[in-house]
């Protein structure tokens, strides 16, 4: 597990860094629901919409924001989504952060969890595999604002039994180990 990772609520001060980091082509190209171009106003609207949602969290390490992890419960099947700034890639932050939010979700819901990755995003596929997600074999053509066309998105799911294994594996069940210590909600 990557050390020093915490999840916290969204706040207005995050709009500037998210607008700066999400527009970087290395990040933006792997996101389907993010407008292109992405402006500060888009980041502000995102925060206004999800500020009070306990499943939309800023990933911090060493006190600095590194990305976002979320579970969108407004869909037919709850959906795990995430992104990290490029300098944070390859250090285990996303696996750790996603594990934390999955544990919180497991305590609140019995529903299976869905996610996916754009074809070719091997890093995201690897994160989901480490979390216990299993490919469904379904490929959904999803519009990418960044490339301006539909791209194949490989679908995966995490059932309740696998979510329980994530909780045990990540050892985030003891008080003070959830990564939500700085949670304002």
| Order of neighbouring strands in the sheet with most strands | 1-2-3-4
Number of domains: 1
Mean model confidence by pLDDT = 88
Assign a percent range to the helix content: 25-40%
Helices, by number, come to 6
Q: Tags for this entry?
A:
Aminopeptidase, alpha+beta, 7 strands, disordered C terminus, globular, 185 residues, four-stranded antiparallel beta sheet, three-stranded antiparallel beta sheet
Please write out the topology:
Blueprint: E1 5-8, H1 14-22, H2 25-28, H3 40-50, E2 56-61, E3 64-72, E4 79-84, H4 93-108, E5 113-118, H5 122-131, E6 134-144, E7 149-158, H6 160-170
Antiparallel strand pairs: 1-2, 2-3, 3-4, 5-7, 6-7
Describe the 3D structure.
- With 185 residues, the chain is an alpha+beta fold.
- The chain has a single domain, classed as Gcn5-related N-acetyltransferase (GNAT) (Aminopeptidase, 3-Layer(aba) Sandwich), CATH 3.40.630.30.
- The protein is 33% helix and 28% strand.
- It contains six helices and seven strands.
- It has helices at residues 14-22, 25-28, 40-50, 93-108, 122-131, 160-170, and strands spanning 5-8, 56-61, 64-72, 79-84, 113-118, 134-144, 149-158.
- It has a four-stranded antiparallel beta sheet with strand order 1-2-3-4, with helices on both faces. A three-stranded antiparallel beta sheet has the order 5-7-6.
- α1 (14-22) crosses α3, α4 (93-108) crosses α5 and α4 (93-108) crosses α6.
- The longest helix is centred in the middle third of the chain and has 16 residues, at 93-108.
- It starts with a strand and ends in a 15-residue tail after the last helix.
């Amino acid at each position: 597990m990557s050390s020093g990772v915490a999840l916290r609520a969204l706040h207005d001060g995050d709009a500037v860094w998210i607008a700066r980091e999400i527009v970087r082509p290395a990040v933006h190209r792997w996101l389907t629901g993010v407008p292109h171009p992405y402006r500060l106003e888009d980041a502000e609207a995102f925060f206004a919409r999800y500020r009070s949602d306990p499943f939309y969290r800023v990933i911090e390490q060493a006190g600095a924001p590194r990305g976002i992890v979320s579970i969108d419960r407004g869909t037919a099947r709850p959906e795990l989504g995430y992104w990290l700034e490029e300098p944070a890639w390859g250090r285990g932050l996303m696996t750790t952060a996603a594990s934390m939010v999955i544990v919180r979700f497991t305590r609140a819901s019995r529903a299976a969890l869905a996610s996916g990755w754009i074809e070719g995003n091997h890093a995201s596929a690897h994160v989901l595999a480490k979390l216990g997600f299993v490919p469904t074999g379904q490929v959904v053509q999803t519009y990418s604002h960044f490339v301006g066309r539909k791209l194949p998105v490989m679908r995966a799911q995490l059932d309740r039994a696998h979510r329980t294994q994530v909780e045990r594996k990540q050892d985030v069940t003891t008080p003070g180990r959830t990564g939500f210590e700085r949670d304002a909600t």
